[in-house]
Specification:
about 260 residues; alpha+beta; 6-stranded mixed beta sheet; 5-stranded antiparallel beta sheet
Length: about 260
């Protein structure tokens, strides 16, 4: 795993094993201002269209893409969209896969776990947004299956979980725990604490990827809540009573 900084100041993490142009982008280097200062790429924030368009253009430039980054209307589902051309409209789903070159795909987060996938032998990539609902519902598994439908082999897929909220900062209630343990008592292992209970989202996501047969996976170890200089965080903004929060973007592309 390495960290890169482009000449225009845009920052991102990159994993060498994913091979293709990609990045887990931080908030640094964008044109948004105020509470969401930086590289806000989400249209759900209180930001101007021109700011978001410019920020997304900088992401596309970092990937050397000729087309805009392709995004969807994320809704904490386990649904996956397979594309071979630019997306029309604003479909609701939480993952995108493609085998088409020069077509950058991206998802956004603000504490949830982003996952980038690649099978360099088959030339298939994927990007998934895995909050607890999506991870619990099977978004990682469904993304992997959609990649296999395009010719990927699960033994050749590399999956990397990007910046997300870490266990130390993800306090939950008893009802949250019971949703998991009612489904599978062994899920109790993803929680710790007594008076206060904390949920290990990155570990849960990694284990769902492994359960789907992809063993070549890791989390980059970056916590969105804990590093406000680099990351937006919905939970941090809520705890501080802030009116808004930005969205981080995470993108990957098959080169032309």
């Amino acid at each position: 795993m390495n960290f890169q900084k482009l000449q225009n100041g845009v920052e991102f993490f990159q994993d060498d094993a994913l091979k293709y142009p990609h990045g887990f982008f931080t908030r640094k280097g964008g044109v948004s201002t105020g509470e969401i200062a930086g590289l806000n790429c989400g249209r759900g924030a209180d930001d101007s269209t021109s700011n978001v368009d410019e920020n997304r253009a900088r992401v596309g430039s970092a990937l050397s893409a000729s087309l805009p980054v392709q995004t969807v209307f994320q809704c904490h589902s386990a649904d996956v969209l397979t594309i071979d051309a630019p997306i029309e409209g604003n479909p609701k789903c939480d993952a995108i896969v493609t085998a088409t070159k020069d077509l950058p795909i991206a998802i956004m987060t603000a504490d949830c776990a982003p996952i980038l996938f690649s099978d360099i032998k088959a030339g298939v990539i994927g990007a998934a947004h895995a909050g607890w609902r999506g991870a619990f519902g099977g978004v990682a598994t469904n993304t992997i299956e959609a990649m296999i439908a395009l010719g990927a082999n699960r033994d050749n897929i590399r999956a990397v979980v990007g910046p997300c909220i870490s266990m130390n900062n993800y306090e939950v209630g008893q009802e949250f725990v019971e949703q998991f343990t009612d489904e599978d008592p062994s899920f109790f292992e993803y929680f710790s604490g007594n008076d206060s209970i904390y949920f290990n989202l990155p570990r849960f996501v990694l284990d769902r990827i492994r359960d789907a047969g992809v063993k070549n996976c890791e989390w980059i170890g970056e916590c969105t809540y804990g590093d406000e200089t680099r990351y937006y965080s919905y939970r941090r903004a809520t705890h501080r009573g802030e009116a808004d929060y930005g969205r981080l973007i995470h993108a990957i592309m098959l080169p032309a």
